[in-house]
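Box 3.1 A note on notation
Throughout this textbook, protein chains are presented in two layers. The first layer is the amino acid sequence; the second is a token string describing backbone geometry. Keep the layers aligned when reading.
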Amino acid sequence: MVETVLLVGIVASIFVGFNIGGSSTGITWGPSVGAGIVTKTTAAAVMTFFVFLGGWTVGRNVMDTLSEGIVTIDLTLTAGVAVLFFIGLGILVANIFGVPVPTSMTTVGAIAGLGLATDTLNYETVAWIISWWIVTPIVGFWAGGIIGRYIYPWVNRRVQIETSDGPLLAFDRSGAVPTPTLGPNTTRVELATTALVLVIGCYMAFSAGASNVPNAAAPLVGGVDGLDVDAAIVVATLAIGLGGFTIARRTMESVGGELSDIPLLAALFVMVTASTITTLLSWAGIPISLVMATVMTIVGIGWGRATRPITVREAVTREPEIEEREIELGAIVAEEKEGEEAPPIGEEEPEEVLRGEDLFNPRAVIKYVSMWIIGPSMSTILAYGFFLLLPGIA
């Protein structure tokens, strides 16, 4: 009986990890694949390695919170399997609505539902986690706003990320030992920027592993019948990797619909900011969604880029003559031409820069935020009802 439950749990963990791999690989490597810097297969392979590294190191802190901090009892194997079912259900609902799935939030909701039903919920820990769910979007938005308003236009004028035809590197075989050299059309700037893109992609994959591996692994850890932590991490990593090699191929083409609409340089700013927020919170043991930090950083950069035509003083005082000035949302989509100076803060942008209103779409933002509320709430309610009817399983 125990072996059967464990097998079902492993299958459920693989299902959860498989779907996580499909979404997180696309968000992480979509910009690089779209720019022709890496292939989809290479992206999936590198993703798998760094997901494992993130889950094996920083992710253990999140696993401790999920398996021991949210409820005051150890999760039994049977309860863990049930929790995985509700996590998978939350992923399914988010996919139906076409919204990036907040897996960490859904996981916490399912475990919290168990705690409510069995009167073992650690309210202090849950309040601490939820407070960071509120703070994180604000931090991501304002970090993105500062980047979009002050940093991105300056960097954009000086950094051009381009890819040339032919291989990036070649081998000089004129000597006794072949030595690597630049490809026939490769410049040193292209080599440096390509290396930077790859490093940032690896960093985001590490962050994805730190936040997402625990979601698929933690419910299997607990009690005498469950897997040990190391084995659970390996199972979750392999499942995420499988998703990266299969269903993520389509996701990498679309990159969730948001990142595909902005330049690669802007996408790199988003990746670094969101990964840093997620990694730091994961290191602190807080289950947080990489998707949440990513989406709100995108929104923040678009907003910051679009509000350059007015100064902070004008935005605060809302002087009458400023009311009529048109502020187009999503201006980050357009880039200044090479050598062209971006207008100073407070001056109107050229018409071609004020395009791309689809990036900052209030309806889309409401849709995402709604799912961040509905997903965890649904998993909490369903888990609460399930464990209330079958308290012996916990």
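The chain has one domain: 2-393. The first strand starts at residue 169 and ends at 172.
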